[in-house]
Amino acid sequence: MAMGGASRRRRGTLADINVTPLVDVMLVLLIIFMVTAPALFQSLPVTLPKATVGQAEVGEGIVVTLTHDRLVQIDQDRVTLDDFTNRFSAIRARKADRPVFLRADQEVPYGKVVELVGLLKAAGVDRVGLVVEIVSTRAGKR
User: Mind listing the pLDDT tens digit for each residue in 13-38?
Assistant: First the structure.
């Protein structure tokens, strides 16, 4: 009889799930995502002018960046000022319903910002949002 009981135990299936390998794989994937995610959204470094008023969410629109070195970037694509109108029109055709935001370095002369706004107007943009760095009004008052 002892033999019959031992054979039944060997034929039974293992019903437990080993989750340790699953957890290991998920942690590795999480680390890979955390390392690569910031590299996906690289933009030109810009020192924004400061203001005390709020602004719309920039992530929902087309962002045009102008640096103090006069480099221009549309979302993640760097372009020259000569090729700006053609490239912007192509991007605008794909994202026609999105607003346009202009990020300009505070060191850029006002004339260059106006020139870029003129190019945006020539491309059919009616309204341009200016991106600024929000400064708390409480810090200045005591």
Answer: 767 788 888 999 999 999 988 887 76
- Give the type of residue at 73: Q
Residue 109 is assigned to a structural domain of this protein: yes
Give the predicted TM-score (pTM) of the model. Answer: 0.58
Q: Phi first, then psi: give them for residue 92, nearest 5 degrees.
A: -65, -35
Q: Is residue 142 part of a domain?
A: no
In terms of Cα–Cα distance, which of 94, 96, 104 is closest to 64? 104
The whole domain housing 58 covers 50-137
**H helices within the chain, ranges in order?**
2-11, 20-40, 84-94, 110-122, 137-140
Total Cβ atoms within 10 A of residue 64: 25
Number of domains in the chain: 2
Sign of the torsion formed by the C-alpha atoms of 104, 109, 110 and 115: negative
